């Protein structure tokens, strides 16, 4: 896995300098533009094309807060492909209540109850977003041991948020179906 932060000569950060990201992207776009290597060997052209592709991907990931969060968790070994992460039982019980309410609303539509459920999910979602913001903001100033603890907490919030996105989709479908 290419380390996009190293590629851009930036420290790993959940809140990197946006201007520096843009500056590096433009500088490397110029440096690795395939047109400048038209008279080079096929190997050199392929290498430049690869570096140009990495530059584009790095910019996409590092300039998007959600992609960046996922990427850092992957980079730091917190997310693994096909991982079956176990969310806390208390969270799952709360989500089970929300899912049951959504199922009830499918059979017995009630705009007031749906609005109330949406507001309830908004509050949970905002709480997760606030917790993620606190942890990611503090991350840069922490020592390595504390960063490791923060990453575990951020990973948990990441999976909670992912779960909530599925519920949000169900709510949006229910809202659209009215």
Automatic annotation (TrEMBL):
Domain J: 3-75
Chaperone among keywords: yes
Record-level Gene Ontology MF annotations: ATPase activator activity; protein-folding chaperone binding
UniProt cross-references to PROSITE patterns, sorted A to Z: DNAJ_2 (PS50076)
Gene Ontology biological-process entries: [2Fe-2S] cluster assembly; protein complex oligomerization
Keyword terms, alphabetized: Chaperone
Family according to the record: Belongs to the HscB family.
Function, as annotated: Co-chaperone involved in the maturation of iron-sulfur cluster-containing proteins. Seems to help targeting proteins to be folded toward HscA.
Protein's name according to its UniProt entry: Molecular chaperone HscB
Naturally occurring in which organism (per UniProt): Pedobacter nyackensis
Species classification: Bacteria, Pseudomonadati, Bacteroidota, Sphingobacteriia, Sphingobacteriales
């Amino acid at each position: 896995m290419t380390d996009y932060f190293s590629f851009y000569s930036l420290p790993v950060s959940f809140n990197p300098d946006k201007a520096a990201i843009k500056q590096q992207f433009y500088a490397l776009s110029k440096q690795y533009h395939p047109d400048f290597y038209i008279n080079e060997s096929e190997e050199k052209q392929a290498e430049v094309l690869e570096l140009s592709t990495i530059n584009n991907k790095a910019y996409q990931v590092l300039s998007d807060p959600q992609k960046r969060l996922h990427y850092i968790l992957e980079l730091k070994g917190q997310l693994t492909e096909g991982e079956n992460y176990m969310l806390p039982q208390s969270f799952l019980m709360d989500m089970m209540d929300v899912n049951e309410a959504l199922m009830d609303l499918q059979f017995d539509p009630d705009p007031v109850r749906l609005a109330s459920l949406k507001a309830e999910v908004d509050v949970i979602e905002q709480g997760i977003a606030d917790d993620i913001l606190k942890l990611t903001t503090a991350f840069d100033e922490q020592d390595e041991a504390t960063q490791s603890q923060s990453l575990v907490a951020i990973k948990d919030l990441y999976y909670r948020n992912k779960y909530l996105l599925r519920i949000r989709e169900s709510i949006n479908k229910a809202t659209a179906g009215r």
